[in-house]
Design goal:
Shape: globular
CATH topology of the largest domain: Aminopeptidase
Distance between the termini: 45 Å
Radius of gyration: 19 Å
CATH class of the largest domain: Alpha Beta
Helix content: 10-25%
CATH architecture of the largest domain: 3-Layer(aba) Sandwich
Largest sheet: 14 strands, mixed
Strand content: 25-35%
């Protein structure tokens, strides 16, 4: 049997000092996630799933490499009408060499072109200030919330099923009502894998006619006994609360984090009811054009790391 050859990543730009910007490999997702775990509770699977639904030679998932070492990262993912930018980081010992700015401004920004790109920058960070200087438009604020999963915070009398127990096309039809880019091919494949994450959970709420009226998903963090929740889409506040309580099943006592839009007062009430604490805030910023305020049926975004819609 012939030995399998290691995948060679697509190189997007090479600089005179030997620095290159190339496609992120699946095995490097763990490096980037470890960098961001210093900031908060990062999910174990987000980048892996996002990588898997886009062609392996496509742009959008960037690694900066210098002398054979991974030194920087950034993501610019085209989710149809709205692109999402995140995971911008430079390894501490390589800062001050322009590795991050070259990756961001000479490769990633060129790829985005005239498309609308959304970024959630940590409030007060250098990144936020730099984005304002480079022409990004200021939008709303998003918040990162954390709590310990508890039983019996709310009682919900409606029907809830595992997301895998309903027709997938019905699930996609419901997702299309809330997601930023309906009928998006990559989102469809992303969600197919998202609801089947190992040691995760995904539920839908149904009305009396069997129609989907809510969707909630949970996935494990890199840290032990820690979990990320998102998305939570719901037609009514009580449905969102019921789904969140259901997502706590099996992880009572463990850490839970989610990210929501501060523009949704019912989402704020939900996290207050479940004793979440606001640990960090982000400034939503747009490149090229601003977008409409997020729908009030979004109680938690899918992922602050790869798809904050």
């Amino acid at each position: 049997m012939a030995e399998s050859q290691e995948i060679k990543p697509t190189i997007f730009k090479t600089f005179e000092d030997g620095y290159i910007v190339r496609r992120m490999l699946p095995k490097e997702a763990s490096i980037v996630q470890k960098w961001f775990s210093q900031i908060g509770t990062v999910s174990r699977y987000d980048i892996d799933i996002a990588l898997s639904v886009f062609p392996s030679n496509s742009q959008g998932f960037y690694i900066g490499e210098y002398e054979g070492e991974v030194v920087a990262s950034a993501i610019r993912i085209p989710w149809g009408d709205a692109w999402y930018g995140s995971m911008y980081f430079v390894n501490d010992k390589y800062r001050g060499k322009g590795f991050g700015t070259r990756l961001r401004d000479q490769v990633a920004r060129e790829y985005v072109g005239k498309n609308t790109c959304c970024i959630d920058a940590v409030l007060g960070s250098v990144t936020e200030k730099n984005l304002s200087r480079f022409g990004y438009i200021i939008g709303h604020k998003t918040g990162y919330f954390q709590t310990k999963a508890q039983a019996n915070i709310v009682q919900y009398s409606g029907e809830i099923k595992k997301a895998t127990e309903v027709p997938f096309d019905d699930l996609i039809a419901y997702d299309n009502k809330h997601f930023i880019s309906p009928n998006n091919r990559e989102r469809r494949e992303f969600l197919r894998k998202w609801i089947a994450i190992p040691n995760g959970a995904a539920f839908v709420a149904l009305d009396q006619s069997g129609n989907i009226v809510g969707l909630g998903c949970r996935r494990p963090s890199i840290r032990e006994k820690a979990n990320n929740i998102g998305p939570i889409y719901a037609d009514k506040p009580e449905i969102a609360n019921g789904l969140l309580q259901k997502l706590f099943d099996g992880i009572v006592g463990e850490d839970v984090v989610l990210t929501l839009h501060h523009t949704n007062p019912d989402a704020i009430k939900m996290v207050e009811r479940f004793n979440f604490q606001n640990k960090m805030n982000f400034q939503r910023m747009y490149l090229n054009a601003s977008m409409a305020e997020p729908k009030k049926t979004i109680y938690a975004v899918t992922s602050i790391d790869v798809c904050a819609f």
